[in-house]
Amino acid sequence: MRLHESGVREIAAGIRAKKFSALEVFEDCLARTTACEGKISALITTAADEGRQQARRIDERLAGGENPGPLAGVPVMLKDNICTRGVRTTAGSRILGDWAPPYDATVWALLREAGAVLLGKTNMDEFAMGNTCGTSAFGPTANPWDVTRVPGGSSGGSAAAVAAGYVPFALGSDTGGSIRQPASYCGICGLKPTYGMVSRYGLIAYGSSLDQIGPFTRNVEDLALVMRILARQDSKDSTSTCGTRGECFSELRGDIKGKRVALVRDFRDFTLDPGIAEAMKRTIAALESAGAEMVEVSLPTVGRYAVACYYAIAASEAHTNLARFDGVRYGYTVSSSAGLKDMFQEVRSHGFGAEVKSRIIAGTCLTEPVRSEQYYVAATRVRSLIAKEFAEAFENADCILQPVTPSLAPEIGEVDDDAMKGYESDLYTLPINMAGLPGYSFFTGGYDAESGLPVGLQLVGPRWSDGELLNTGLALEKILGAPVIAKAGI
Ligand code: GLN
């Protein structure tokens, strides 16, 4: 097996045991990346020089008898809205096209301290708004299972990179599905942790009350290992509330005997692609064979109002968060000789793409004093109802099994021409962010009979049940099989 095909634990153990060096792993992953990039375009920036230096340093520390950490020498890619000191961080936008942050996001500081090595920054929908990677100012990314299709979004570059075997893990961010949906389209594992589990310090904000960083891997135990490092209380983020809850990732038993797994009654009438409906049946059979009990719950408000309310809240928060990009403090700017107002207008007109502008305009309207009670405030009330509905459902169930999306990865360009179609396809993911819950997106071991695309599903649990979701994930992975590397068109 080639080094780039190995998982996080195998690479870390091999380097520690001196079976191979961190530099050898780095070069093999870089070679795979270079071979595939022409077809996939998963990256905005390759950090070859920085990464090589970090890998050499790990090898030196090991040679000197030091323990460089649990991820020593494991290459990683980060979504390009995660700040990396001195390495360009664009959020997929022209407005930050050449911005190099002066500080590191907490997640990157934690990974680096644990020995991980940065190989690149991945493509994404501009400011994480979208679900195809198609709103990126840097062009689209392709799905490694079929290069005519999207990898999903907004963290599509990270998902494609892991699926194609560039790196054994990558980070993304999820505001309404942006980790779980691309993980599902690309046939890998992705976790959107409980809100507050992972620090958002250094994540370029989209919807601050919804955003959460999480990992992509090719097996569930790697996901737990990465989460053991990321799930830390952070004094730099006032919404970081995990305390010692990161301990939930320490041991995955893979035992789900007697666990109550729910199906959502209200989702029964929604149409699903045949490949996804078939995967639901196979996964239910696997859960039952492992001793789980299938039950039913009802989420009527979620099914009816979540999409509209999410987009109202997300746009309102986005318009506030994106007000800081004015050409004065960050990135793209023009000469201010025409006066400040003209300068703001020109910078924002040229710096932002169409989808981002439409969200800023929507958010501005929805939060205007005369309208905010009717729209923004109303949406936040429905949000509370949604959270309550989930809490009630979890009185009778330990977790919920549900689709990630109603259909499989669309053709490149298909959704970008019809924004509403994209918004509606977030129906199964965005309620989870509204309620602050964890969602685990996993490969079901099956491929759609017609398109050959991998099929994923999602487990959702109560707040802080992330470790239990992965535990159920392990039971399923043992029966259904773990993700495999996609050919990536080469
Ligand atoms: N598609 C959703 C949106 O555009 C979710 C994106 C995300 O999770 N970042 O808002």
Detailed description of the structure:
- The chain is α/β, with parallel strands linked by helices.
- It has a domain at 3-258: Alpha-Beta Complex (Amidase signature (AS) enzymes).
- The protein is 39% helix and 13% strand.
- It has 15 helices and 11 strands.
- It has helices at residues 8-16, 22-40, 48-63, 106-113, 156-163, 180-185, 220-230, 274-289, 300-321, 340-351, 354-366, 369-393, 419-424, 430-434, 466-480; strands at 43-46, 75-79, 117-122, 169-174, 189-192, 212-217, 260-264, 293-297, 399-403, 439-447, 454-460.
- Strands 1-3-2-4-6-5-10-11-9-7-8 form an 11-stranded mixed β-sheet, with helices on both faces.
- A hairpin with a 6-residue loop joins β10 (439-447) and β11 (454-460).
- α9 (300-321) packs across α12.
- The protein is globular and about 60 Å long.
- The relative contact order is 0.15.
- The model has no long low-confidence stretch (mean pLDDT 96).
- The structure holds glutamine.
- Residues 128-131, 154, 174-178, 206, 314, 426 line the site of glutamine.
